[in-house]
Amino acid sequence: MSEPKTSTSYRDSLKSLDTEEGIDLAFYRPIGYMWARLAKWVGVTPNAITIASIFLGIGAGVMMYFNSYWMNIVGMLLLVWANSFDSADGQLARMTHSYSRLGRILDGLSGDLWFLTIYIAICLRENVTSSFFMSHHWVIWTVAVVTGICHAKQAAMADYYRQFHLYFLKGEEGSELENAFSLRRKLAAMPWKGNFWKKLSLTVYTSYTAQQEATSPAMQRLRAELAVRFPDGVVPQRFRDDFRSMSLPLMKYTNILSFNWRTIALFTALLVRMPWLYFVFELTVLNALLVMMVVRHEKLCSVLTKRLQNGDYDRD
Fold this sequence. Notes:
mainly alpha; 0% strand; globular
């Protein structure tokens, strides 16, 4: 069997220009590409880069505990470094065609661990520097837990809509879109004995996918209608083009809910020495964007489902 072809092209290391965020294209992707080229040359795997990013992100969170500009700046630089590695792992995977579900799970876990550490650091810091939170310890921890739940939902749906867009833009090979029903079948067929960690990770991932699907019922109806109309999986190009034209304007919301604007708010809150403001930003601005993003995507999917049912995309 021949080895899969690899590519060293910068363009090939990107997901797609449709789904890339401006700050990523200007900053993180070029840096990530250099890391990916270096990793490819020395034989480092994408998963190894992801694991390194976890340690960098945790280190960043620890530095944000201290009420010191210099330590906070070190934390910011570590977080930027961690995210450049987070960019590099995906770029390396695309360059070497070394995709894996484990890599996708690790990639999601890395960001969760970064922000878990950051949330804990902010809570501990506020409990020793703010007179209000010193007297009401439970308040900041409660806010942090609620914010973390919202953060997880925001990130999950932004990722889901991005993968759905990529599916129609580039096909199955260019997307990591999953189906909870298929995942459950794989899970049921996999014994625990000899597969403990693999089955555990698949269990978590299946639950993650099921939650994404539960938040997007109109999108699931669209997927079901496509499966009925085109059981061979070959969706007409005209449908793909219509979906792209309607979905593309919404990609900016998925990007705002991703890393860059989130960290701009975090860094601003740290620099004005009011880290709790970051929680306020997530609970207000980002939650409002999440609701808007879900509503508009659901409307888009309902429109396209109706067109399918009317026979607008039936093959000749």
